[in-house]
Amino acid sequence: MSQQQVDEETPLLQPAKQKKARTPLPWRQFSIILFLQLAEPLTSQVIAPFAPQLIRDIGITDGDETRVGYYVGLMVSLFFATQALTVLHWSRISDHIGRKPVILTGLFGLSISMYCFGLSRTFYGLVLSRALNGALNGNIGVIKSMMVELTDSSNLAQAYAYMPIAWSSGGAIGPLIGGSLSRPADRFPNIFGHSQFMKTYPYFLACAVPATFSLLAWVVTFLFLQETVPTRVTLWQLLKGKNRKHSASLKGPVASTGSTDSLSTEDTSQRAKAGGSKPLPLRSLLIPRVIIAAGNYAALSFFDIAFRAVQPVFFATPVELGGLGLDPPRIGNILAIYGVINGLFQIFFFADLHDRFGSKIIYSVSMAVAIPMVITLPILNAVARVQGLSLTLWAIVGLQLVLSMILNLAYSCVFIYIAAASPNQASLGATNGIAQLGVSIVRTIGPASATSTFSLSIQNPHHAWIVYYYMIALVCIGICTSLLLPRQLWKNTH
């Protein structure tokens, strides 16, 4: 690249470079992706309000209240344990056979597993349902890959700003469904009081709603979602190793239906060139920038899943044991309010904040606010012991939710880093799979370890703060790993 000649007539202040205009998002396909994403938070969050009561009802704790948190955390961790075994394989397969078949399989697995969960009357039945849910669901990394393939560098941050709307909506609607529709024979005796089925399976109705939604999402995917992988092979050809020269070209990842449903000309040409590249072997993907991005995603998720596992258990635990003693409907309302406000906050503020401060600063600040977020838990219990469910207590709950919203900004930032870390376009699914593998592993450990630590802290008054020390240590790990992230994104080759 030639340097500009400098002489006495060269102005000292160079004119500012014009900022590249954002490419309009391809709303037709993008809205379908957001709709599909709603299935997973619905199925995962619907059990949060009634999980402690479910564990009590099946009798595995033998009436020992201090063991409830342990089994709740174990049940949550099982999903991520089985997902860790399969998510990388699903993501790598999607690089070869396409994103759509993998998403269809994941939605089917979500639906069947939630129906089974609602029909389970033993802890082992719950275990098998959660294991099936995790093993068949590889959609997280695959959908993120599709979002990158539908966008370019000018609108990627804007796209990720909308990504939390699905998780926030699911995080809001799911707890409302779980809290309102669990034990319907008791809550709505005029409607379900004479139904022996609802008395025998008191949590089936709450689980059937997200399960049915997943079936609806499967139909929408099958009929309307367009493939974004430009060259792909069939699963049979992949298994037989005949994918060396085979390519089934698509007309394009997005139909040209106007400016809002098409990618820019420059970006389309780049994707076309990238389409000729092939998915790299796994060893070639284990480069420093992929490991750094995936490590930060894992560190963030480790703390977040630990806190999310402890939070509803803390809300449900009696005040004298260290919690707030709230019932499932009230817990559901708190989580629902957080979900709605968080989604709106991400949509309206993340893209502009990202344009102004960049990924590194936002990520670092978001991780730092996790420390006061943890400290609000013992403060809430102390206020509840003295004042009960007072206005001061609800103000602190509100502060905790605000801090949680700031923490969630870090997810969009780390997704941008992961997309930038991919060595080429054809390996985007595998790169997301590597990141999701690490996250699934820490999410396996996080809920069980956090809730077990919480159970230990309420069993012995001398260990009352051990759960808070544990979560603050997780925050410190996240802050340390964030120091490895560069200020400027890695240059992509795709």
Rounded to the nearest angstrom, the distance between the terminal CA atoms is 21 Å
What's the story with the biggest beta sheet? none
Tally of DSSP β-strands: 0
Which parts are unreliable, with pLDDT below 50 for 5 consecutive residues or more?
242-276
Number of helices: 21
Q: For the residues shown, what is the average pLDDT?
A: 81
DSSP helix fraction: over 70%
How would you describe the shape?
globular
| Series of secondary-structure elements, N-terminal to C-terminal | HHHHHHHHHHHHHHHHHHHHH
Q: Which percent band covers the strand fraction?
A: under 5%
Structural class: mainly alpha
- Radius of gyration based on Cα positions: 24 Å
Give an overview in words:
71% of the residues lie in helices and 0% in strands. With 494 residues, it is mainly α. The longest helix has 41 residues, at 328-368. The chain has helices at residues 27-37, 39-45, 51-58, 68-97, 99-119, 123-136, 139-149, 156-181, 184-187, 189-192, 196-200, 204-224, 235-239, 265-275, 282-285, 288-316, 328-368, 370-387, 391-421, 428-459, 466-482.
